[in-house]
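Entry type: protein chain
Record version: 2
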Amino acid sequence: MQARKEKKWTKVVVSTIKIAVTLGGIVYIFKKVPFFEAIGNWTQATWPWLAVILFLTVILMAIQANRWRGLLLDDGKKIKFHTFYAYIALGYFFNNLLPSGFGGDAVKTIAFGKRFGNTANSVAAIAISRIMGILAMILSFFIAFPFVVAKYQVPLSYTITVSAFALVAILVIVGGLFSDKLKIPDKLALQVPFLLKLQNAFSIYRSHPKAFWLSGLDSIWLQIVTILIHYAYFRAVGIDVDIAIITVFTTIMVVFTMLPISINGIGIRENVQVSLYTGLLGIPADIVLASTLLSYLPLLFQASQGALVFAFLGKTSIFIRKEDSQ
């Protein structure tokens, strides 16, 4: 009982800190740059670029679906591609409802596993997808980094944070591939039998290197599309920023928004963007904030697709096994 109370209070404290950081970040940035002053930079020239961004967003989601499908090996081939796309959209829908950037992953993975079976493989595939995506992002960061530091002095704290994420991602992916070498205590294995299934699900990719490396290739394509989207955000507000700078700064922003200190990175994203593009490049803060606020429209677009999936399929058909619904 005592442990349960402590766990409950820990969740309350963590949630309170996230809310405080989020609200503090929002208040600070909009005190610095008024909201309507920022979106005043949205003009008629913005909307064609927004159309390009939404198109690229669909491509991005399709690549994510293809990567997930490939990591499910033979089981993935039995399920139509549009089903994976639908569950990717569902994940974005729940990401915007749950106070975590990973909440949607949990929902879509468990829902997919319950409907089609083999939840452990689905969880492992999504986890590896996430890590491979981070590695592709960090790889692009270090490729572009020399071109950026030759002209601008990127704060050391940013570089250290990205490097730390890179190390953690590598350790996680290697640990997952060789997780079967770790002996799970018998008592724990009996209490949580899913751990053994998950362990086997991760290690199976050592026997399927082609699927593993193809997921890495998909992650690289995903990163290229992501960079193009962020480039389009600035073009939408009339600014042309070098692709190398976009690559490095986007990685820094994404890494900081992944830190579990705010709600979905809100408040952190805006301040990091302004500190980088205004502080280092001298782009007016209202224009930087205008491009950053524009990035919420594709998120709403992704979430709306997920809402349609949820409404069309219904809770029952999403969260029960396919054979049970027949």
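Comment: The CA atoms of residues 50 and 198 lie 40 Å apart.
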